[in-house]
Amino acid sequence: MKKIYELTAFEIKEKIASKELTSVEVVTAIFNRIEETDGEIGSFVSLRKEKALEEAKIVDEKIKNGEKVGALAGVPVAIKDNMVSIGEPSQSASKILEGYEGIYDATVVTKLKAADAIIIGKTNMDEFAMGSTTTTSIYEKRTKNPRDLNKVPGGSSGGAAASMAADQCYISLGSDTGGSIRQPASFCGVVGLKPTYGRVSRYGLMAFASSLDQIGPFTKTVKDAALALNVIAGIDDYDSTAEEIEVPNYLDSLTGDIKGMKIGVPKEYFIDGLNEGVKKVVNESLEVFKSLGAEIVEISLPHTKYAAPTYYVLAPAEASSNLARFDGVRYGHRTENPANIEELYVKSRSEGFGDEVKRRIMVGTYVLSAGFFDAYFKKAQKVRTLIKNDFEKAFEQVDVIFTPVTPGPAFSIDAKKTPVELYLEDIFTIPANLAGIPGISIPAGTTDGLPVGIQLLGRAFGEREILKAGDAFEQALKERV
Ligand code: GLN
Predict the structure, then answer these.
(1) CA atoms within 13 A on the CB side of 444
(2) Helices marked H in 251-291 — which ranges?
(3) Which residues lie below 8 Å from residue 393, measured CB to CB, with a gap of 6+?
(4) Catalytic residues, which ones?
(5) 138-156: pLDDT as tens digits
(6) Helices (DSSP H) in 233-325: which residue ranges?
């Protein structure tokens, strides 16, 4: 029999609703699991055991009394350290926010609470979500890949991915600006969904690049991703970019039937640098889709090669502006005994930000500066439109686009990669953020014992199609084992 922590969010939700398990039992099992494993894995940077148990008791009471409960009643959920919650540490893994506690709840937190989910704590990440390894975090804790402790979990939502892979919770929310949900999901062998830009409110998510950031769930199954999206999606008075588009019941789209579905495979994604093991898993996955009756169509996304350079102009530009608010006056770290106000700003920021964040602020202010704005920022905005147009054209032909998630599997924690080498690893995930479309990473196999995911991209607000295709694929893989 499966242990409580091994079950899916959906199974747990059902067992709590039918009173087979209480939320208190589930939350207790989860904290025991965290206590046993997190010394080694390092997924969490803060935990709220006492409060979680109290909340679980209330949910159990409601269920006992036959009161109406929410869609995630009693289910333990984790959130990334860059999402604020009232009275709790919310630090974006940065020294500049040392000791900072949220003074309001992010909309996703409000929605989770309204669904009676139990928030158990915050997960580790790269500082301000800038990175692909979770090693730029200020916390001493190093997050490891639960599938191989010598490997990185990916990033920036590495703690969230690890928490799922290590069965430390049932849903873990991350954020994805250029791949930070899909890449760690692929590295850790779990499902990671980046919704359409505007599907989920960003209110209370500490901004990295506001036109690219989206919150999404890590889960064990595609079905759980649909369940989580049902809860967190929708409009929000506090975020004007959260679109007024009806939230369907995403679980209803999981019919298992994808006969005749047109799946596009962009030739530009099968580059020379693609790892042989990844290539093998990707090709085998295409065969699975064929066997399910999907039609595989070769497509072209001609501007793909410009996606990474475009992103690494636009994301730092937006970051440099967003991070200007951290000035040592209003939040977190403040330098000691500054001689004057200018020194207060300069020293607080120099001491508070890590190297990668500083690098991005410098690149960002450079590309936004009067002399270079046209050459870099404006040009990048134009290329962004071309990339978006590529997808729009492709979606006239196909329902879903299939690609690898990363060029290779998780790499060593000790790998000495240069920033540019790391940036280039994001080539398959970045285009979806630039185009604002949804993407999901689904475990598809292994190479040398390390997980490999595949990515499905959909039309804007086409989460239903990618969830449907992903779920059918996942079921087919399960039957093969
Ligand atoms: N790895 C990318 C970066 O460093 C993506 C990060 C993210 O999606 N938050 O910017």
Answers:
(1) 31
(2) 276-291
(3) none
(4) 80, 156, 180
(5) 998 899 999 999 999 999 9
(6) 276-291, 307-322
How is residue 64 written in tokens? Answer: 């006992």
CA of 53 to the centre of ligand 1 (A): 34
Which domains, and CATH codes, for the chain?
4-253 (3.90.1300.10)
Position 479 scores a pLDDT of 87
Helix axis angle, 49-64 to 9-17, nearest 10°: 50
Instruction: Report residue 481's pLDDT band, with 50, 70 and 90 as the boundaries.
Output: low
| Phi then psi dihedrals of residue 324, to 5 deg | -65, -20
Give φ, ψ of 247 to 5 degrees.
-95, 110
Residue 430 CA: which ligand 1 atom is closest?
A: 5
C-beta separation of 233 from 247 below 8 A? yes
- Which is higher by pLDDT, 451 or 425? 451
Task: Please name the amino acid found at residue 400.
Answer: V
Residue among 125, 130, 406 to mutate when testing ligand 1 (max atoms within 8 A of CB):
130
Q: Record the pTM.
A: 0.97
Count CA atoms within 13 Å of residue 332 on its CB side.
24
- Reading the block at residue 221, the tokens are 């199954």
Average pLDDT, the chain: 97
Q: Assess whether the C-beta atom of 315 lies below 6 angstroms from ligand 1.
A: yes
The stretch 34-52 carries a mean pLDDT of: 98
For residue 100, give the nearest of 123, 120, 81 by alpha carbon: 81
CA neighbor of 250 nearest in space, from 4, 8, 10: 10
- CB atoms inside a 10 Å sphere around CB 333: 19
